[in-house]
Specification:
The protein has 5 helices and 6 strands. The chain is α+β, with helices and mostly antiparallel strands. It has a 6-stranded mixed beta sheet with strand order 2-5-4-3-1-6. The chain is globular. The protein binds a DNA duplex through loops.
DNA sequence: GCCAACGTTGGC
DNA sequence: GCCAACGTTGGC
């Protein structure tokens, strides 16, 4: 069992979209980065849990960006169908069904937070400062989270406070 | 809206 | 294999 962090832009697919999806589940499609693809194809297993992270976007209600929920993997890596669909924004003519370039997993919502863990708090916490998402210029949309980082963040969330209240 | 940082592409 | 140019991401 491993822990991960999945990024999504608020305007593209929000935690609210997931909460309202059938069975509160979705296909995590459209990842077009090789390092993240390798995670999806080779390393992410059923039962793995991940933080749902909203990065900065124009319409996001989350400012600063941050971790807004927990999701669980319900189907491990399989070819990303959106790459084969000319009408999809994720269409990639170089990927074919015989030898797919891109992979996806299926996830379901475990928990949506009322109080989220903002990037400012992540950066300000010595326990979290090594998280991939805290690194300058980081663009990796799927990254590993250590058990210590996971537990620390869950501890924060169990306090039930907003970032402002905590500080 | 700006721009730094990054990943990918393509010419050589 | 190098690296400049380009397009994109994402914090602010």
């Amino acid at each position: 069992m491993q822990y991960w962090l999945f990024k999504s832009e608020f305007a593209t697919f929000s935690i609210s979209d997931l909460a309202h999806a059938p069975n509160q589940a979705t296909t995590w499609e459209g990842v077009r980065n090789y390092q993240a693809r390798n995670f999806l194809r080779d390393d992410i297993n059923v039962g793995d849990q991940a933080f749902f992270y909203h990065s900065t976007s124009q319409y996001s209600k989350y400012s600063p960006p941050g971790i807004v929920g927990i999701i669980e993997v319900v189907k491990s890596g399989y070819p990303d169908d959106s790459a084969f669909d000319p009408n999809s924004r994720y269409f990639d003519p170089k990927s074919c069904r015989e030898k797919p370039t891109w992979y996806q997993v299926d996830v379901r919502l475990v928990k949506s937070f009322t109080h989220y863990v903002g990037l400012d708090l992540i950066k300000a916490s010595p326990e979290l400062k090594d998280m991939v998402v805290a690194r300058k210029g980081n663009r990796l949309s799927i990254s590993k989270v250590t058990p210590d980082e996971w537990n620390f963040i869950c501890f924060f969330l169990s306090r039930g406070k907003t970032v402002e209240q905590w500080w």
